[in-house]
Design brief:
Layout (H helix, E strand, L loop, with lengths): L12 H8 L3 H7 L3 H22 L8 H9 L4 H17 L3 H25 L5 H15 L5
Helix pairs in contact: 1-3, 3-6, 5-6, 6-7
Length: about 150
């Protein structure tokens, strides 16, 4: 187990290889260390979630309740997996400078996506209120039991 991945210690090789889109025997044979596997999973995670954010524009939702439902009432296995992966990657980035920059960028993009939804549905709110609500929504959206 790599010391670089303290928050991913409980992840099974099968779960990691599935996220990376690789066959487990190939990973065992070709990947010399878990860091390479982490980077592949990180890349796929960012690509998949960014594509999702591009599809779910503020105009896609009749009201803020629909947006909130996507964040909090989505019990699909992929969504729960993505939330858990995001939380683990954010945690791991504190001790791994090579993933810190892409995770920081991903988090910034996700925060902006959330802010755009809040701004779209509450145009008269102050910037401070919009940012505060967006930050709260971001924090709570990572609170998933799985």
């Amino acid at each position: 187990m790599s010391a670089v991945l303290p928050s991913l210690v409980c992840a099974t090789l099968a779960a990691i290889t599935q996220e990376a889109g690789l066959a487990r025997p190939l990973v065992r044979y070709h990947v010399g260390h878990q860091d390479a596997l982490l980077h592949k999973a990180l890349q796929r995670f960012i690509q998949r979630t960014q594509k999702l954010y591009q599809q779910l524009l503020p105009q896609s939702f009749a009201d803020i309740d629909e947006f909130i439902e996507i964040l909090y009432c989505n019990d699909s296995p992929q969504y729960i997996n993505d939330v858990q992966i995001a939380a683990a990657l954010i945690s791991a980035s504190a001790n791994n400078p090579t993933i810190k920059v892409p995770i920081k960028s991903w988090f910034s993009n996700r925060s902006q996506w959330c802010y755009q939804h809040i701004s779209h549905h509450y145009p008269k709110a102050s910037e401070q209120q919009k940012r505060a609500v967006s930050a709260g929504v971001m924090g709570v959206s990572f609170n998933v039991n799985g």
